[in-house]
């Protein structure tokens, strides 16, 4: 019997959209019983959101002041404690899951299957290597628990049609004090979340400055889109790191991706190649981004982007 | 700090036609770029007088000596190669590093956040778990304050700061620093620096059952689409596809 425990990412108030995608991945195991674990200071609101996810049969809510921030060294022993009743423990391949899940795997004495993009069987998976330039089939050892992270761009969120019971077990493990949360500087934005948005507009180095990024925000707002950026634009300081799209930033799969002034380095293309439709606007007709774009437009972005914004609005 | 020998990041990796792996014959091999950033940080810490010695470690074939020599040329004091021709999974790698940590007793282990070949991003976190010490992954800033360190981490929602007790494991992200170039005289000097070779088998590491990679295949390619001449053309193409 396949029993999957999904570790929910959240900010203390709301469930992160990655949880519904992890449940989507877990639903790929035939006949699996899927539980979601919420570790928080007070996880009631997040747990009730998790209980509404389709295919979830139970939510495990673990409240502890030590869980008020997601510190891997604190969460991992609690997850390892719960893991004995499960065949699989899954987390998202976001910075939350990438930080946490290998620590869980080591405590359970197994290697992790990173970035699961397809479930082939209870212990067999497909995942990308070499920045997505090759896809491998991985077989985890039989008879051992599987710890994995789920590649977000490969899965859709399950619907909110569930109504699972919420359980609050007591977890009796010693938690380390050696790692302390100081602060989180989070970008505040009313725009959709980059990782899960259905539309994304990204800008590259060709924008030339932080101020010039305004035309990207305007186009995004006209489309109801999230805003991303290339590594070059982040490195140049035009926008903060959390907006980076690409192999070392966020790997995304929106229905519509508009790349503005982005030449298309391999590491950026790796982050967007699962997008539905890719639109590229660039002054260089030979830019590699045009090799994978569905629609390309060559020209001055400072003229074309405001024109497109007006056309979208009207 | 750890250095992994990987296919150079500029090489366009291709899957072998029989699906047994990727082409590595005659392909340029380099230090994993994230590990280079980790080494640069270790050197800067030593240059500020906050560390006495920087030891570079690699687990891999005899040829990984080349990457360790490059690390020595960048400025590391000595190198250790744990020699094996086997493919090492992250958990085994973490166990090997733990054994070296127990021997060397470092105050700080700095690793790249991931290697650009397998893209696993596991080894540092696993070492921290086995060592029962703090971890701070995806570091973009590292400040040592005696018995503790303050680490700024690049996370999906922004920048997180953690305070960790030392010893600890830190894995580094791209924006932590820009690694120095190696100068010719340093390459000459590096030849005289100590490089210990230890056969993996002599460490007495028990290897658990590991995952098997059975098939390599190329990814699905996107096709080049349509070039449009103006915004009106783009808007109508997007409308036809139901995107506007």
Q: Work out the count of structural domains of chain B.
A: 1
Overall pLDDT of chain A: 96
CATH hierarchy, class of chain B: Alpha Beta
Order of helices and strands of chain B: EEHEHEHEHEEEEHEEEH
Low-pLDDT parts of chain A are none
CATH superfamily caption of chain B: HUPs
CATH topology of the largest domain in chain A: Rossmann fold
Largest interface: A-B, 81 and 81 residues
Q: How is the biggest beta sheet of chain B arranged?
A: 5 strands, mixed
Could you say what the CATH topology of chain B is called? Rossmann fold
Task: Based on Cα principal axes, name the global outline of chain B.
Answer: globular
Number of helices of chain B: 6
Order of the strands making up the biggest sheet of chain B: 5-9-6-7-8
Quote the distance from N terminus to C terminus of chain A.
55 Å
Number of helices of chain A: 9
Walkthrough of the structure:
- The complex is a heterodimer of chains A (314) and B (244).
- Chain A has helices spanning 18-26, 44-51, 72-83, 95-107, 214-223, 231-235, 266-270, 289-292, 301-313; strands at 3-7, 33-40, 56-63, 88-92, 112-116, 118-119, 124-129, 134-139, 146-150, 166-167, 179-186, 199-203, 226-229, 256-260, 277-282, 295-298.
- Chain A has 314 residues and is α/β, with parallel strands linked by helices.
- Chain A has two domains: 3-167, Rossmann fold, CATH 3.40.50.620; 199-313, TPP-binding domain (Rossmann fold), CATH 3.40.50.1220.
- Chain A has a seven-stranded parallel beta sheet with strand order 5-9-4-1-2-3-10, sandwiched between helices. Chain A has a five-stranded parallel beta sheet with strand order 13-12-14-15-16. In chain A, strands 6-7-8 form a three-stranded antiparallel beta sheet, with no helix packed on it.
- In chain A, strand 12, helix 5 and strand 13 (226-229) form a beta-alpha-beta unit.
- Chain A is globular.
- Chain B has 244 residues and is an alpha/beta fold.
- Chain B has one domain (5-240): 3-Layer(aba) Sandwich (Rossmann fold).
- Chain B has six helices and twelve strands.
- Chain B has helices at residues 33-47, 65-74, 90-104, 123-131, 184-190, 231-240, and strands at residues 5-7, 29-31, 55-60, 78-83, 108-112, 135-145, 148-155, 158-165, 168-172, 195-199, 212-217, 226-228.
- Chain B has a five-stranded mixed beta sheet with strand order 5-9-6-7-8, sandwiched between helices.
- In chain B, helix 2 links the parallel strand 3 and strand 4 (78-83).
- Chain B is globular.
- The termini of chain B are far apart.
- At the A-B interface, helix 3, helix 4, strand 5, strand 8 and strand 11 of A face helix 3, helix 4, strand 6, strand 7 and strand 8 of B.
């Amino acid at each position: 019997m396949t029993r999957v425990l999904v570790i929910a990412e959240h900010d203390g108030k709301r469930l992160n959209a990655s949880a519904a995608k992890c449940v989507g991945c877990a639903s790929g195991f035939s006949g699996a019983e899927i539980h979601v674990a919420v570790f928080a200071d007070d996880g009631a609101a997040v747990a009730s959101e998790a209980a509404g996810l389709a295919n979830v049969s139970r939510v495990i809510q673990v409240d502890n002041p030590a869980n008020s921030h997601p510190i891997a060294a604190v969460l991992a022993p609690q997850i390892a404690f719960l893991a004995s009743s499960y065949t699989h423990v899954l987390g998202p391949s976001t910075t939350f899951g990438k930080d946490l899940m290998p620590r869980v795997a080591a405590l359970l004495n197994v290697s992790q299957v990173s970035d699961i993009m397809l479930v082939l069987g209870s212990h067999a998976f497909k995942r990308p290597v070499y920045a997505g330039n090759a896809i491998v089939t991985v077989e985890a050892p039989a008879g051992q628990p599987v710890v994995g992270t789920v590649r977000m761009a490969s899965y859709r969120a399950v619907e909110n049609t569930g109504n699972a019971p919420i359980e609050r077990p007591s977890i009796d493990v010693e938690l380390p004090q050696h790692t302390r949360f100081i602060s989180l500087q989070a970008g505040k934005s009313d725009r959709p979340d980059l990782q899960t948005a259905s539309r994304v507009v990204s800008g590259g180095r060709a924008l030339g400055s932080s101020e010039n990024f305004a035309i990207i925000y305007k186009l995004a707002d006209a489309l109801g889109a999230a805003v991303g950026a290339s590594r070059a634009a982040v490195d140049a300081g035009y926008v903060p790191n959390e907006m980076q799209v690409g192999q070392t930033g966020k790997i995304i799969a929106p229905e519509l991706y508009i790349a503005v002034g982005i030449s298309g380095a391999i590491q950026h293309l790796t982050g967007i190649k699962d997008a539905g439709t890719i639109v590229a606007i660039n002054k260089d007709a030979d830019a590699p981004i045009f090799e994978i774009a569905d629609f390309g437009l060559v020209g001055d972005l400072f003229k074309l982007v405001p024109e497109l914004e007006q056309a979208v609005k009207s | 700090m750890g250095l992994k020998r990987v296919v150079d990041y500029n090489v366009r990796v291709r899957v072998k036609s029989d699906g047994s792996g990727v082409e590595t014959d005659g392909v340029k091999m380099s230090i994993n770029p994230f590990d280079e950033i980790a080494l640069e940080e270790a050197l800067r810490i030593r240059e500020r007088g906050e560390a006495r010695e920087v030891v570079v470690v690699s687990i891999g074939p005899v040829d990984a000596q080349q990457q360790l020599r490059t690390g020595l040329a960048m400025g590391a004091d000595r190198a250790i190669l744990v020699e094996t021709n086997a493919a090492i999974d992250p958990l085994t790698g973490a166990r090997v590093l733990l054994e070296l940590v127990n021997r060397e007793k470092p105050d700080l282990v700095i690793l790249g956040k991931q290697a650009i070949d397998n893209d696993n991003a596991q080894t540092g976190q696993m070492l921290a778990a086995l060592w029962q010490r703090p971890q701070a992954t995806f570091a973009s800033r590292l400040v040592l304050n005696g018995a503790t360190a303050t680490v700024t981490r690049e996370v999906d929602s922004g920048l997180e700061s953690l305070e960790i007790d030392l010893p600890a494991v830190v894995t580094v992200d791209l924006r932590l620093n820009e690694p120095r170039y190696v100068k010719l005289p340093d390459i000459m000097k590096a030849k005289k620096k100590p490089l210990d070779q230890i056969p993996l088998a002599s460490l007495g590491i028990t290897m658990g059952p590991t995952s098997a990679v059975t098939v390599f295949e190329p990814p699905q390619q996107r096709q080049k689409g349509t070039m449009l001449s103006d915004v009106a053309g783009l808007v109508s193409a997007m409308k036809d596809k139901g995107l506007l």
